[in-house]
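Appendix B, Record 12. Input sequence as logged:
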Amino acid sequence: MQRIARLAIENINSETHLLFSHYDELRALLLRHLPPSVVSLFARPVLKADNYVEWYSDLEGQPQLLAQNSPQYEQVNRLINQRLQSIENLHHSLLAQGKISREQAQLLAQLATIARQDRQIYLVNNEPIIIGWHIKPEPVPVPVAPATEPKSAFRWWWLLLLLLLLFASGLGWWWFNRAPETTPQPFVEIVEEPKLEPKLQLDEIPIPDYKKPEPKKEEIKPPEPVKEEAKKEEVKKEEVKKEVKKEEPPKPKTIDTALQVGKKWYGKYYCSGRMAKMTIEVIKRTGNHVVALERWDYGPGEVGIVYLEGVLTDKIFNARETRWHTRPQKLGDWIFTSFQGTYDAKRNIFHGRVPEAGCTTFEMRESK
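Logged structural output:
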C-alpha cells in the first residue's frame, strides 16, 4: 500500500466521520458483488491529528495527478461514472432484495454521490483513483436585501388631495356645459282603416271541373340474375388477404439477450504469455445477476471449470470467478480473476478484458 496524497482540511462534519469509520465495511461489501477495479476507485482515508487526511491505495506504481485539460480526462471521467453507476445499481438491487440494512444502503448512496462532486483524480498504471471524496460543496449564502426606511405618508396626502381637486373641477365643467333638457312630445300612431272587398254572390262563384285521376300502371321488371363469377372472385380475394400476414422484423440483439440462460460463447485469451481456450455458458439469471460456467484450457492436465458470477449494468458485464466446479489435474497457484465484457451487436461477438494476473483481452463468438 502506498500513499497517494496528503490534504489539509479546516473541519470535518459528522457525515464525513461516518464514511471514514465505515470505509472497511463498505469496501468488503463492494468486493463481494463487484470487481476489484471498482473498489480500488476510492482511496483509503487516514485522518491525522493535525487536521490532515492522508490517502492510500493498494495499487502499485507512480501516481500522476490528472488535470482537467488533459486529453485523457474525458475518457477517464467516463470510466469513473460507469463504475459509480454500477455501485448505485448494486445499492438499489441489494436494498430491494433486503440483503443490506438501511444504514448500509444510505452509506453506499452517500459514497457514490459525494464521489461525483469536487474531487481529485490520480492515475496509477492507467487505473483511476479518487481522493478528496469527503468534500461536499458548501451552500451559497442568499443575499438579503437591505432594510429601507418607511416613506412618510405626508406625500400621499398631497397626491390624494390633488386627485380630488381634479375630479371636482371636471365635474363642475360638465355641469355648466351640459345640453339643456327637452320635453318629449307625445307619440300619435296613425291607423289606416282596412278596405272591404265586395262580396260575391253564389251564382258568381266559379265551380271547377273535378275528375278523378286514373291510377298509373307500374311495370314489374323481372329480377336480374346474380353474377356468380363476381362473387367467387370476391371470396377468393378475401381468402388471400386472410392468408397474407405481416412478418414482424427481428428484434435487435443486445447484451441482455446475449446473456440469457442457455447462451454459450467460445473464444480465447492470453495470461502470462500463454494462450488459453475459453468457453462461457449461462446457467442462471435473476434480474441483472448472471451466473455462468467458465471453462478454460491451457493444455493437457490444465483444464478447469469455475463459477462466474456478476452483475449486468447498462452495456457492461462485470463478473468474478467465485468457486471451483472442476479443478485441473495439475496442481499450481491457480487464482480467481475478475471479468469485464461487452457485446458488439454488429459483429455478434462478446469481448472484453481480464484485468488481473497478467492477463489481456478476450474475444468470443456465440456457439450455434
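Residues 137-148 have pLDDT under 50 and may be disordered.
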